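Sample entry (192 residues):
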Amino acid sequence: MFGRRTASTGSTAVSVDTEQSKIGGKGRATPTRKEAEAARKQRLTPPKGRKQLAARQREQTKASRAQVRAAMETGDDRYLPARDRGPVRKFVRDYVDSRRTVGQYLLPAFFVIFVVASLAREIAAYSTYVWFAVIALMITDAVRLTRGVKAGIHERFPDAETKGISLYAVMRGWQMRRLRLPKPQVTYGAKI
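Predicted structure, serialized as tokens:
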């Protein structure tokens, strides 16, 4: 009755509009009337004092931090910080996370070298050479990683800006896998 008429048949196109809105989706559940009215009333009522204003701001800050934390766990691009947003950064994260790097074992290696050097005096003289060998391996691995990342970006995103991508990849590669944020979304050896 109130739907749009198509030019050819004159029938209503309500079902087409409904299908189009379902394809895109809004990414969240529709709130119930009770929830919507409560949210609207909360927005309309101003805080009655400084304490209530501060409490409301703390709640909003807590909610936004929870969204960011959840995005860091799941990799949701909408709530990630600006430095981690975009398809190019996601590609870099996935590329680094799908490979084993020397830097991710850096902390345990330095701990072992330090303990062994402090316990055995005969080995302590050689610990400096071991430190330099680990650092040389890290630099070599960083060069390999940045070359691979840049080649992959030029292949998949030919017009993308690559400024800062090398440092982003290297810093992610030097972190232990469990401590990386946003959390790794791919396993070792995954095809990117």
